[in-house]
């Protein structure tokens, strides 16, 4: 299907919102695509592609439109956030629900969930993904973690497959394991490990979040690409069942804390590598 300006969903991501906003403002100013093109040294086909989100306008062109249409820097701001914010719109929407949640349920498989990560772990994760502005991404993730310690913090239940602990980079392992024990000791958090001995279990289907707010329940399923916001009743039921079944394979909260402390002690006893001159 060929993407057209009419088919753009402004809720899909920030580039789509920019494309739709550009088209709306052009029409409000009763200008053709050719006339906009002459303003920014581009032809009408290029402007058409911008409005259909087939390619992205350069920031200099958007600054010209901001000045011409008196938008107060709107287009430049949209370009900035579309260029630097890697979280898709669906995750940004879930993050809003997360901040309002009274109950959070988290199923972690291959990686430590974002709400439990240390800065060093998060930096490694973002670097492996090849994302720009790693420092900014880490800062956003750390700020997001305030949800579990704020006044009126939600009850947080985490089921974490032990595999995720085995692939923590050695340079970040001790700090990350310590962080997990600290979170596990919080009165509003229940952290349970699914040991390797459990073998295949329903939680291995993938990482996901469930957020219960005063208004509704939503989920977010992580994928290597974009992830998906889950709002349909049947899909939410499936995630809830998967979480409960994975919980059935997990250690108790007390046994989990003991296992984490054992791993910290094991790592503390690892030989220190000598730096060769």
From TrEMBL:
<dbReference type="InterPro" id="IPR001387">
    <property type="entry name" value="Cro/C1-type_HTH"/>
</dbReference>
<protein>
    <submittedName>
        <fullName>XRE family transcriptional regulator</fullName>
    </submittedName>
</protein>
<feature type="domain" description="HTH cro/C1-type">
    <location>
        <begin position="22"/>
        <end position="65"/>
    </location>
</feature>
<dbReference type="InterPro" id="IPR043917">
    <property type="entry name" value="DUF5753"/>
</dbReference>
<dbReference type="Pfam" id="PF19054">
    <property type="entry name" value="DUF5753"/>
</dbReference>
<dbReference type="InterPro" id="IPR010982">
    <property type="entry name" value="Lambda_DNA-bd_dom_sf"/>
</dbReference>
<dbReference type="GO" id="GO:0003677">
    <property type="term" value="F:DNA binding"/>
</dbReference>
């Amino acid at each position: 299907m060929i993407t057209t300006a009419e088919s753009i969903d402004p809720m899909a991501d920030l580039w789509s919102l920019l494309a739709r906003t550009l088209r709306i403002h052009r029409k409000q100013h009763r200008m053709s695509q050719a006339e906009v093109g002459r303003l920014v040294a581009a032809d009408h086909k290029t402007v058409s592609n911008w409005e259909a989100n087939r390619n992205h306008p350069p920031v200099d062109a958007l600054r010209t439109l901001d000045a011409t249409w008196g938008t107060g820097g709107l287009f430049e701001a949209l370009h900035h956030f579309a260029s630097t914010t890697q979280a898709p719109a669906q995750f940004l929407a879930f993050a809003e629900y997360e901040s309002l949640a009274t109950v959070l349920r988290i199923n972690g498989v291959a990686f430590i969930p974002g709400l439990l990560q240390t800065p060093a772990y998060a930096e490694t994760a973002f670097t492996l993904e090849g994302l720009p502005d790693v420092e900014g991404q880490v800062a956003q993730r750390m700020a997001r973690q305030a949800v579990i310690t704020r006044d009126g913090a939600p009850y947080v239940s985490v089921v974490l497959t032990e595999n995720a602990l085995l692939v923590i980079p050695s340079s970040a392992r001790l700090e990350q394991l310590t962080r997990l024990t600290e979170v596990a000791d919080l009165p509003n958090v229940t952290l349970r490990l699914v040991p390797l001995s459990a073998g295949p279990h329903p939680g291995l289907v993938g990482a996901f979040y469930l957020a219960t707010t005063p208004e509704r329940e939503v989920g977010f399923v992580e994928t290597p690409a974009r992830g998906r916001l889950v709002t349909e009743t049947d899909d939410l039921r499936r995630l809830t069942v998967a979480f409960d079944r994975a919980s059935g394979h997990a250690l108790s909260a007390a046994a989990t804390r003991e296992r984490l402390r054992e791993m910290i002690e094991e790592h503390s006893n690892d030989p220190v590598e000598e730096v060769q001159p």
